[in-house]
Structure formats: C-alpha cells, structure tokens
Amino acid sequence: MNKLLKNSWALFTGYGIIMIAFGLQGNLLGVRSAIEDFSLISTGILMSAYFIGFFVGANVVPNLVSRVGHVRVFAAFASMASLSILVHAIFVNPIVWSIARFLTGMSMVSIFIVTESWLNDRANNRSRGKLLSVYMFVTFGSIALGALLLNFSSPIKFEPFVLISLLLSIALMPILLTKRKAPRFKKISPMKTKELYKISPMGVVTSFCNGLIHSALFTLTAVYGVIMGFTIFEISLLIFLITIAGALFQWPLGYISDKMDRRKVMIYSSLVAALFAFLSIVTVGSSAELMNFAVDWETNKFIFFIFTTIFAGFSLPIYAINIAHTNDYIPKEKFVSAGAGLQLVLSLGAMGGPLACVIFMDSFGPSGFFVFLIILHIIISVFGFYRMSVRPTEENPDSTFTPLPRNITPLGIELDPTTGANLSATDKK
Hints:
Layout: H1 2-35, H2 40-68, H3 70-90, H4 94-122, H5 128-148, H6 159-176, H7 193-199, H8 201-227, H9 232-248, H10 250-257, H11 262-284, H12 297-315, H13 318-327, H14 335-364, H15 368-390, H16 410-413, H17 425-428
C-alpha cells in the first residue's frame, strides 16, 4: 500500500487541490448569487447548469480520453475550470454564470473520470479497497476544507474567485510533472435504465431521488444560509458539518445494511432524515426576521446545526447503500454496469434538483428548502415499504456495502473489491 501511495502521490495531490477549489466554488456562488439578489429561479437554473454540464461531459469525455490521452484531457479541463471561475468574477450575470457553471460541470466530470481511470490502472485486487478508501478520504476532506475557505475573503470581492483559479492551476503541476505513464483508457457501458428498473425498481427510484436531494443540498445550502441571515463563518461551518457527516455515517449505516434488508435501512434512514429536516424548520423558523425577536436565536442556531448535521448523516449514505441494494439482485460481473446505470439516473435527477428546490423556496419561503428534502425522503420511504410488500429479501454473498463519495463515476465504482474488476495478471493466477 505504501508503494502504491508513493506512486500515486502526484495524482492524489492534484486531485485534492482541485476538490478544495470545488468545495469553495459552488458555495461561494450560492452566497454571492443571494447577495447579488438573483431571483431564486435564476439561482436554481445556474446551479442546475453544473449538473447538465456534468451529464454531457460524462458522455463526451470518455471518447476524448481515448483519442488524446489522460494528461491532455486533465490539463485542458482543469484549465477550463480555472477560466470559468474567473468569468464569474468578471461578469456578474445569471445567464453568463449559467454558461460558466455548465463548463465547470463538464470540467469536473472530466477530472473525475481521468483520476479514477488512473487509480484503476494502478490498483490490483489486493489494493483496490484501500485505494478507494484513500480516494474517499481525500474527496470528502478536501470538499469540507474548501467550504471553510469561504472565510478567506468577502464573497463580494474578487479574491475568492482568484483563489479558486489559483488552486486549479496549481493542481496541474504535480500531474503534469509525474514520470508515471498514463494508463490505457477503458470505457464502461451503463446498464439500460429499463433493464435496471426491472432488476431493482427501488434502486432506480432511490437513485433518482438521491440526485434531486444531493444536488439541492450541496448547491443551495449556502443560499438558504444567506436568506436566513447566517454569517459567512456559520454557512461554511454548516456545509463542513454536512459534508463530514455524510462521510462518517456511511460506515455504521453500511455495516447495519450488511446485516439486514438494505431496504429497511434506507427506509428508516429516510424517515429519520425527514424528521430532522422538519425539526430544522421548527428550530429556526421560516424567516431571518426571527432574529429580531427570538431571545434564544443563537441557541436555536446551535440546535439547528446539530439537527441539520444529523439529517445529512442519515440522508447522504443512502446513495451508497442503494448501490449495494441493487447489487443484491444481480450477478457480480454486472456490478459496475449497474452502478453506471444508477449514476445515469442520479445525474438525471441532479439536473433538476436545484431548480425544483428553488420553486419550493419561492412558494414556501426559506423553509421550502427543507420541505423539498422532506418530500423526497418520504417518497423513498413509501416506495420502499411498497417494494418490501411485493418482493422478499434476496441474499447475494458477493454484494457488500462499500462507502463511496457522492461524485464518484463508474470507473471509481470499479475500485470496489466486490466488483471483481481490474484483476492483474498476478491476481488471476
């Protein structure tokens, strides 16, 4: 493992710096769009544009990598991401920002695909699980650190945008200077959605809902915080806690899901998440005007942070549990293609998540943010109860839970040792 990390330090360093910039960028734009008084609909559109770019990039980039190679694609799209954030600083306009966010989405999925392809090439059956764990740690840790960088300077100023561009540019250096030869790229075809739904209706519905939930939560929390009158530090801390909770809760919930029907874990996790989302509404109310007369406003905010962290802890791991649940009903050799299919469905949900959520916020006020999340978790729970009534639990000894970062691509899913992928010549003997 030490040798593997030594050989991969440049990749992890560059990727980690990019994820720090990524963690700062989305939240910075959320805060700035609220300060600039963009309409909620405009904010939802520009946030959704990122996921549209992500979806388009996921279908275009594999062919590009096959034609020009990993290093060129990585350098080109990291440069595009660096350029797009500067466009936000120069042209403060929701239409321009939407175009720039689309380019950012394409750039980020390109970086994920190249990184995970490179990791797959360097891993074997004995090291894939450990390498995936490091990848997950770097992903969540860097995103959380990026959220705290909101305090670097006022979102009104251009300095935070320059910092993001600087980080993205620095990230290129260790990758481009590495002596390691780039791997041969392998395309992964996703399982067709219709076929996937026949195999696991619960998996498809939950994946779509997860796309809506994750995209709204990670793009509009900062907007919600500004509307509610939170300070920049409080907003950054809230996003930090949400990110870390989503990572840490995966292990206990995943362990439980290996011991019982995963649908029960997803159902009860969704119900707990919905409960704490509701409690978050009750704690701080629906308007920042509460600050003017709520004697315990600061105490309420502290409790709100606790409730929201618990909400994220039970909500975000459902994504990885759902992949394991779907794998319970298919043979081992189809794990990766099924995961790719679920990613496709999740991406379709993510494209509409921010826009759908701001419609609720426009109709119900700031609390519409949590109302939207509550409804989606209830849908997962109700559909889960229905599926349990018509289909018994199936035991699949090849399927076990694996913690996964939310932005992982099918190439990253292949790092999961349970998929049986990437056998080296030594492993096959």
